Each structure stands twice: as C-alpha cells, then as structure tokens.
Amino acid sequence: MKKYVILVLLPILLSAESPKEILERSVRLFSHKNIRFLVHSTVERENGVQKRSFVVAKKNDARNSDLLIRFLAPSTLRCTTILTRKSGTMTQTYVYFPSLGRVRIIPKNKENKEAVGLGISYAELHDMSGTFLPIETIETETGELYKITKRKRPGCITVYLVEKNSKRLKKIETYENGRLKKEIVIDDIGNIGEEAMVLAWHIVDHDKKRILRFRVDKSTITSDISATLFKKNRLKRCSS
C-alpha cells in the first residue's frame, strides 16, 4: 500500500483556488457533459460475485443538469432507474422501482442512503455542499496531490485526493466518527473528445464487506441522447 507524506498545509486564502473550486474542476464520476454510455460492474462478496450493467445519460446546459442511470441487469434490478435533475441551486432525485410500479421522490433527509446498485449515496451523485478544511499538499511516488477534506455533518468526513497538476481525482475516502467506511478509487481516466472522463473505478465498502468494480464500455459512448430520457413521467419506459 502506498504511503503519503504530508508536505505543507496551505491556508485557503493563499491557494489560487478554493478547495471546492478545485474539486468542481476535477475529473469526477459522471462529470462529463452531454453523454450516454453503458457501464459493466461486478459486486464481489465472500459468497460470490454478481454481474450488473446500467446505462448512464447526462445532459447539461447553462443552468440545468440531468443525470439518468438505468439498470439493464441483473433481472432483480432491471429497469430500476435513478433520475437526478438540477436546476440552479435546486436538486431533486427520482427513482423508479419496477417491483412497485411507481416513481418515488427521494427526500432530502434520505439522500445519504445508498443509491440502489451503485455503492454510493444519492447525495454523492450531485451534492458538493459541506464545510471544507484548509487544503493539504501531499507527496506520493507518482507526484503531488491535493488532499481536500470536507465535513458534511457532525462526525462525517469525506477526503478527496486530487492530482495537483492535472486536477484529476484519484481517490475518495469517507469516514464516520473517525472510522473508514468506504473508499472510491479511480482506476482509469481517458480523453473523450476534448474532455477527460473516468472510465473505470472501484469501491471498497468496509461496512458491507464488499468490493464493487465498474468499467465504462467505450464502444457505447455517444452524444446522441434523446431528451425524453430525462422526463419523470417516462421513467417506467424501460429501454437501453
């Protein structure tokens, strides 16, 4: 395991960018604009491995951002769909559960629960709010990283490791009351057109004792997106 050495603590006022600005500019999960692609994933537990696949579609304009995730496999998750719509400072998340035959709104007090099938919470799909601590710069074998620490609520801390030069996100660690709960590791980043995009990542879930691995099927990446995908009243229409 790599060891990190802390070099210096940089006050926010002395940094060219604030911690939040650096994080918002970093290459993160599902941060690529106006795109559609297929993701293949596995969930590894002590008793076996389950394969999953889902479609991701993202649409952005000057003020609005829509993110849709629709599961294609396995059969127990097929057609389950998550839609996050952001307009200005307002965000709303909807989930279609085929077993219930209905679309549910995720209330704000439930957004910290895990988004079905993804290993991250609904809030982690869109929410960058929280109290940021001063940036630390740390040195690794491959170069310098920014260590950005955010307090979301009492006892809950998220640590982001971002490459200092490229601004590419390397890893996310979440802690609760000082205990490491989850690690999200970026395994591969590639260029799609003129933008960098996360192509592979894995999540180590210490609480549930599982590892979730994800890889984008590059052959499916397209900017050809139907606007009807993002309509709440069409989430029940299950197609890839």
UniProtKB/TrEMBL annotation:
Residue ranges constituting the Uncharacterized protein TP-0789 domain according to the UniProt record: 65-237
Entries under InterPro entries matching the protein: TP_0789-like (IPR033399)
Domain of life, per lineage: Bacteria
Protein name according to UniProt: Uncharacterized protein TP-0789 domain-containing protein
Organism whose genome encodes this protein: Hydrogenimonas cancrithermarum
Lineage start: Bacteria, Pseudomonadati, Campylobacterota, Epsilonproteobacteria, Campylobacterales
